[in-house]
Write a structure and sequence with these properties.
By secondary structure, the chain is of the alpha/beta class. 30% of the residues lie in helices and 18% in strands. The chain contains 11 helices and 12 strands. Strand 1, helix 2 and strand 2 form a beta-alpha-beta unit. The protein is globular, with a radius of gyration of 23 Å.
Length: 321
């Protein structure tokens, strides 16, 4: 194999423009210093990549659709990544190594990654679907941003709602098998029950019912076996550790982890700002802070605003950080 062959451009096609596909693109761009890979991302949704974990917040009105967008490449091929939204793959020719989209385009590949995620399971109940297979009027699934829009539209004139399914049930069973100790928090008047079980500094089980605003970081720490933060109440109550940080970012030490999902410290955010990132979106693009569960966004925005304000004061920023 010649040196030219070793650095020849390779074609990667990723089917699915969700969280997994977006993370793959980010990691590849970060590591592919020789720009060896030409990447095409295909997503059937018309939106840019977004964080599905936060769809419940969009539905509840506590987050906007734009605020849950992931730090992902925009639809262009200027940097070796082309993102095609609103199109679906209808055929894969494994012999010719070509995928065909529903608009008739054929895209060759050297490596193909299917990052299509899951589909909403609709129970086989008589009367739930029309003759053409679509859901009857008044019924909806909950998986995408468009599903949020449909549910909100249906809810405008609705007086009753029935929810089928509970996505966290299997996880709760898994937690239950690994419980060791924990202190529950009950708020009967608010329909809330919370319990996080910690052993050797790591989460081994959890139950969050009612208020699930901390579900994101709890799930991330459990899945990755991460060490819990010193203030363990932040695992039960969102904002207990971040509100003060947002108001007084100067008190946060550089070594403090701001984004637990991606291990981003305040020092990394500061370095990112000094290198030219001026918004939370810029910081997210370079560090992936806020792109996990999203609960650190207020803190990241607070740090960015504080850095901008510090830079305009007579005392230089380098003297303050």
């Amino acid at each position: 194999m010649t040196a030219a062959d070793m650095i020849a451009t390779r074609r990667l096609v990723i089917v699915g423009n969700g969280m997994a596909g977006s993370r793959l693109v980010h990691e590849l761009r970060r590591r592919d210093l020789s720009s060896r890979w030409q990447v095409t991302v295909i997503g059937d949704e018309p939106h840019a990549a977004y964080n599905r974990v936060l769809l419940s917040n969009v539905l509840a009105g506590t987050a906007s659709a734009s605020s849950i967008h992931l730090a992902a490449p925009k639809p262009s091929s200027d940097d070796g990544v082309e993102v095609r939204t609103g199109v679906a793959v209808v055929d894969i020719d494994r012999v010719a190594r070509v995928v065909t989209t529903d608009d008739g385009r054929q895209i060759p590949y050297d490596v193909l990654v299917l990052a299509t995620g899951s589909t909403a399971v609709v129970p086989p109940i008589d009367g739930l679907r029309t003759q053409d297979g679509s859901l009857v009027e008044g019924a909806a699934v909950f998986r995408t941003l468009d599903d949020c829009d449909r549910i909100l539209e249906l809810a405008r004139n609705a007086t009753r709602a029935v929810v089928l399914g509970g996505g966290s049930r299997c996880r709760r069973r898994q937690f239950a098998r690994r419980w060791r100790r924990g202190a529950p928090v009950r708020r009967p008047g608010r329909g809330t029950y919370k319990k996080v079980v910690i052993r050797d500094g790591r989460i081994t089980g959890a139950i969050l019912l009612g208020d699930v605003t901390t579900a994101g970081p709890v799930m991330q720490l459990f899945d990755r076996g991460g060490v819990v933060p010193p203030d363990r109440l932040t695992l039960l109550f969102a904002g207990m550790g971040s509100s003060d940080a947002t108001e007084t970012p100067a008190r946060i030490p550089d070594r403090a982890t701001v984004c637990r999902c991606n291990g981003v410290t305040k020092g990394a955010i500061t370095a990112c700002w000094l290198a030219g990132a001026r918004t939370a979106e810029d910081v997210a693009l370079r560090t992936r802070a806020t792109t996990g569960c999203g609960t650190c966004r207020d803190t990241v925005e607070g740090i960015v605003d504080w850095l901008a304000a510090s830079a305009t004061e007579p005392r230089t920023l380098s003297q303050r950080v």
